[in-house]
Amino acid sequence: MTSNTPIRKILILAANPRDTSSLRLDEEIRDIREALQRSQYRDQFALECRTAVRHQDVQRALLDTKPHIVHFSGHGVGEQGLVLENEVGKMQLVSTEALVGLFELFSNTVECVLLNACYSKFQADAICQNINYVIGMNQPIGDRAAIEFAVSFYDALGAQHSIEFAHGLGCNAIAMAGIAESQTPVLLRKPGLVSQSIQNQNADAVLPMKSSMLSQSTSTQSRVFISYRSKEPDLSLAHQFYDGLKDSGHNLFMAGESIRLGETWAQRIDDELEQCDYFLLLLSPQSAISEMVTEEVRRAKQLQDERTYGKPTILPIRVNFPMNSPLNYDLRGYLQRIQQREWKSQEDTPKILKEILSVVSGEQKSETIDVRQAVDDSEPSQLLLNVKNRPPVPVAEPELPEGQVDLESAFYIERPPIEARCYEAILKPGALIRIKAPRQMGKTSLFARILHHAKQQGYLTISLSFQIADAVIFSDLDKFLRWFCATIGRKLKLQNRVAEYWDDIFGSKDNCTAYFEEYLLPEISNSLVLGLDEVDMIFNHPEVASDFLGLLRAWHELAKNNDLWKKLRLVIVHSTEVYIPMSINQSPFNVGLPIDLPEFKVEQIMHLAQSHGLDWTSSQAQHFMKMVGGHPYLVRVGLYYIARRDVTLEEVLEAAPTEAGLYGDHLRRHLWNLEHYPELMKAVKKLVESNGSVRLDSSVQTFKLHSMGLVQFQGNNVKFRYSLYEQYFRDRLRG
Amino acid sequence: MTTKSAAVSEFYHVGGSLPLNSPAYVYRQADDELYDGLKAGEFCYVLNSRQMGKSSLRVQTTQRLRSEGVACVAIDLTQIGSRSTTAGQWYAGITLNLTKGLYLTDKINLRNWLKERDHLSPVQRLSEFIEEILLKLTSQQIVVFIDEIDSVLSLEFSLDDFFALIRDCYNQRADKPDYRRITFALLGVSTPSELIQDKKRTPFNIGRAIELSGFNLFEAKPLATGLADKFEDPQAILKKVLSWTNGQPFLTQKICELIATSSSSSSIGVKLTGIDKLIGSQIIKNWEAQDNPEHLKTIQDRLLSNKEQIKGLLALYKKILDSGRKVMADNSFDQEELCLSGLVMKEKNCLVPQNRIYKKVFNQKWIEKELENLSFHDRLQVDWFSSSPRDSSKLLAGKELNNAISKANDRVNVFSQDWEYLLACSQHELLRYQRDLNEQKNVSKKSEKHLSLSQISKEVAESALKEERQSLKQALDDILSDLSVVNFFTILLTLLALMFPLQSLFKARIAIWELAVFFIVSLIVISNASSLLTQVKELLDKYEKEKPIGLEIKDDSDLMKPLVEMIDEKLEE
Which among A421, A518, A533, B496 is least buried, having the fewest CB atoms inside 10 angstroms? Predict the structure, then answer.
């Protein structure tokens, strides 16, 4: 059906003459382009852009592209018309009459005209005599609101919604962004036009809305992605679900076996995740510690956040995995707002299957828990299992569970003098500690210990991981700082007064500072240690990162002479250098105590082996280190299974660099991750071919690979960090 | 052991400003200059490279002034502006910080005050705030420090009004004595002309520039205290450190801390060369991985941040590093920018690397590595600039030159160095064309001798030469391309017509052929030359309209004259 739908052409006309104030048109066009590219139906849209348009260009562009939607971005001056450019880039007015005449001529092709310019309602009123839908602004519209509106508008069109819906969503986006201009864009219809879908030329081609967006009574065909472990009982349960769903006419993808076939499983998983409407997750105690599963859920969550229609819906089923047993920190974060079902025995199967069917067919909405009450569920639940018998988890807890510290500590290896220095530093007023190391090097464990230490001194402690925050908040400084303030306030159990303190008179940084200075800090009686984990997440948004880190630096500087700010102490954890080009017009983020976490040394590994009840000689430890170096997580995993007598050291080493080995899960996650960054993949291939150290093309690549823990520096060159990676990637990527 | 090293780590301070009362604070000449200036109510500014101790200087000076009853406010601009901040919000942020800094929050409801003045422009609101609130509600001297001033360069609106307002506060003093109580100090990494161009409104020409240089041995004495526990002669150690850092504050503090906490420090005490090793292994070697807290990377980022400017800076730096010959300070744009990065400094009117560590880190190899990222002709340009005497083999010619010029014509900003280079190339190329033409003329003269029997042929030659001039003239009016084809054919036809009666004379025929070749070759040369000339003319027009960045400071007449003359000459011909 979709292939028959005619392609809709969108023509963007942008004009920002040199003698008018500068608008962020490039950004708007870029964002619109992205919105459409993200859309599921992107093939049905063709985007044409004309910038710096002059009056003769408008005609030409309309003739050349025959657009269905015309989008004008620029300045408007009310009754006098819209502002275009003349030959020398200065402003030239085009009168309303001229525009009306123009669109009258094109009225049989153009369906919708969007005038993203101040006071454009004048023109819109006139143009809609001939054009079905015209959107204009009834007052001045700010850059940000204009962009928010445009992006959501095209998001909605991209998801096959009507123009009315798209307009509503656009207005809502302005409101959501906290801008008081949501009433500004006005939709006008041609007199006598009955409200219709955008597909008015092809009325029967209107796509049904997806079931999760509207609870329709008719049952819908859905795509379901089933993630499971290829062991019993998960395996047969997955097949039962498969059969049940298949019979009801749904499309299914089994992400257990099918992905192991063929070499391109990574691509497969991505495609299927991208397309699926539902992500059925069978969580057993074993899969809950799998890095691959965590990553799958993360990506599903990410897709959900990116899309306005919230696909895919995640349906977690706990398989022999009681609700009260803990998930690892990240999984908990991703799944915290989602209702989970528990499967205990074969008897539960029909009931759960029935429920899944009704959700997937769109008869029942999947339940989500209110965000507000759910956030504090991220507190670690009481760990019922004996720690010693618990396999190491890929993600550490940022907060030490109460009463478990001693047990946890049995496996925590100190790396002097780092711990002592941190403990001491955090006691200083206005302290700032920056911990940096590649992933799974024990950053979060150290972080948890610093926080624990601070807590014992009577400080308030808060940990905040950027990993589990919705990706959207990082796209805009204002959004981000509001989220930051609100979250910290909530964790301090203080009433949310962000709206009250956020005053448009001031910039967002001033508002954020004021929230701390006038509200949060005076409210608390003791010092506050604020731990920020996975800060790397904001590095992908250089604008926000520069400003936020600049703000933290400014606060830290303030604390040197200001008693109130002395209360705030910061611990910041990131896995890589700030590789983004920070604004050169501000001081670098080089304040506070920098901590680089080193790997374990031989003695430390022997010590850890001992805590696992293994009596290793130093040559055994060195043997082990030849494969995995002193990588804390890899070492822990190895020791755990060796101590359980599941495998011997020799067996571990032999199968280590394969997907069947102990580290298969870890390695596959790395490979999958690389698939998403072609330039990093290329760099790794270069490394594979070099047989040693090699210099990469860009330092960003170098830092990214380093932060993933795959490489280590050797002068200006890099080489694989461990033999484990070298052998695995050589095997997978050579030739 | 841990407690001891912790105590030491408290002594020195790496990155960020030094807390008050830090024993490691080093008093410099600038301390007194700034203090005296502000005390006298002068507008002062410390515009300098990063991590030279500006903010620490501010903290100390604040303390000194406060102890004498002067109210001080420090506004850190990174706390106020971001890209999405509007002018209104930015100025409101300044008023907010002034209110907080002078403890006026209880005396005025700023939000309401601002809302009531919604009809005023942002800068007017600030101006009114200063006059009506700040000066009315206080009675003592006020010094406003504005730190991280360069962050205004990232804003989306111009802050000329703000700087003009500062100047206005000084101008008002004559009429309103209250204004004598308020004084401003700006600190940041920038140049006055980068912050505000308008000569009439800039406050910088009525203010006092405070130079901030590295510590000298005498000034740095307090730093030796931190080493006194471990070493017999901490002064000697310090001297050694300064020989590496030349008193650059960040590096000096960092290395002192390294030495003080180094476990093998006792052995360092024995041999001062231990320090060389320490610096070599912990600062210079593999510096990209060891630069934590970052410092060297910031310098690199700054040098490489502006893609169009890289080649200019690299060429200049290469020259400074290369030669035993000195590079005189001429305040050109590139020089200012290079000094601002901190990499080089002025010493006795010459530019030299700031210290030995920079020299080792940002060495020839580093330059070469960065040059590899440049395009072929950018690299040529760098080589040409850094060669002395200038190597004309590094100049662009032919098509490449045409391309480079047309690219420059399309670009919004042209930097003075690009400009200079392109003109030098054009000049060189035009001279070459002229030489070619002369050579051809000589050939034709020879042929004419052979052909002396025929007066007509001479006339033909002359008329052809005339036409050549004609075509050149026209070319400059941008119509050569069409005409040259016509000319070519007319000449060829004339020649053919001539050939018949002279056929019997063998020599003459050869001469005519030679003449024909001369015409053709010179036509090609002329058309090349004239298309280049038109482009250069365009470049000159562009230059007339918008001066290339950084050129204004330099006397450009010597650079322009020969070319302009040459073009005029051609036109006259």
Answer: B496
